[in-house]
Specification:
The protein has 113 residues and is mostly helical. The protein is 60% helix and 0% strand. The protein has one domain (13-92). It is built from 3 helices and no strands. Keywords: Membrane, Transmembrane, Transmembrane helix.
């Protein structure tokens, strides 16, 4: 007796949530100085898209492509956020503290008078 594939019922809200959060996170991530606020969007987007993808594969739930797109968008947004964080951390670590004196540099030989 041939097995019939299960009928897809219901909706995969995790896939939709992962896609929306990933899209919004990626849009905000590429905006200068606002890119850091995208982190609270892309991390839940990664989680929701992963759950949505697992449900779509395991239970044959709908929106497999939406979950996959959400996972890709969230991942790209997450990487962009990490680049922003690394760039800001680099700028902070290499800049002189406000009010700090410039390092002394010898420009010529000292002469005795």
């Amino acid at each position: 007796m041939a097995q019939h594939p299960r009928r897809v019922t219901g909706d995969n809200h995790f896939a939709t949530a992962g896609f929306v959060l990933g899209l919004l996170g990626l849009v905000f991530a590429v905006i200068p100085f606002i890119g850091l606020i995208a982190m609270p969007l892309v991390v839940p987007g990664l989680v929701c898209a992963t759950i949505g993808l697992a449900r779509a594969v395991r239970y044959q739930a709908p929106r497999l492509s939406t979950a996959a797109a959400g996972l890709v968008l969230s991942t790209i947004g997450f990487v962009v956020c990490l680049v922003w964080i690394a760039g800001i951390a680099h700028d902070i670590s290499t800049s002189a503290a406000p009010g700090a004196a410039e390092p002394y540099q010898v420009t010529s030989a000292a002469h005795d008078s």
